[in-house]
Amino acid sequence: MEVGFLGLGIMGKAMSMNLLNNGFKVTVWNRTLSKCNEVVVHGASVVKTPAKVVKKCKITIAILSDPVVALSVVFDKDGVLEKICSGKGYIDMSTIDPETSCKISKVSRYSLALD
User: Fold this and answer.
1) Which SS3 state, helix, strand or coil, does residue 90 take?
2) Pairing of strands 89-92, 59-62
3) Which segments of the chain are extended strands (E)?
4) Cα torsion through 19, 89, 45, 68, rounded to 10
5) 67-75 and 98-114 are packed helices; what angle lies between their axes, rounded to 10 degrees?
6) What is the DSSP string of 2-40?
7) Alpha carbon distance 104, 99 (integer Å)
8) Tally of CB atoms within 10 A around 59
């Protein structure tokens, strides 16, 4: 199974490395693409948009820095909602408030219901 990561800060990078070290295929994206270099050296694939991560992976995990970024990664052009569908999982572990989490959850569930 291939796991996707959106955001390679302290937690995202560490979790990606743990998965790689345990035999998982990992695809990553970060706003600053150069932050992907270390996990790529250890076997991760890098793509240029969150939508491409979701398209490629069965499960995508987001660990982003704030509500603005979490919302943009989901709703903006080339975002998660463009490729999320039945059979895909999206786990948001970002540093966000409950209201932002609810917005993302409601729209993600609605998108899957339309699939």
Assistant:
1) strand
2) parallel
3) 2-6, 25-29, 45-46, 59-62, 89-92
4) -100
5) 10
6) EEEEE--SHHHHHHHHHHHHTT-EEEEE-SSGGGGHHHH
7) 9
8) 15
Q: What is the pLDDT of residues 52-89, one digit of tens each?
A: 999 999 999 999 999 999 999 999 999 999 999 888 99
Query: Residues for the chain: how many in total?
Result: 115
Per-chain mean pLDDT for the chain: 92
88, 115 in Cβ contact below 8 A? no
Alpha carbons within 13 angstroms on the beta-carbon side of residue 52 total: 10
Q: Which two tokens stand for residue 108?
A: 């993600």
Radius of gyration (Cα) for the chain, nearest Å?
Answer: 13
Reported confidence tier of residue 40, pLDDT bands at 50, 70, 90: very high
Q: Are 6 and 60 in contact, with CB atoms under 8 Å apart?
A: yes
Separation between Cα atoms, residue 94 and residue 63, nearest integer Å? 4
Q: Which tokens go with 46? A: 């890098």
pLDDT for 109 equals 63
pLDDT at 87: 87
Stated pTM of the model: 0.91
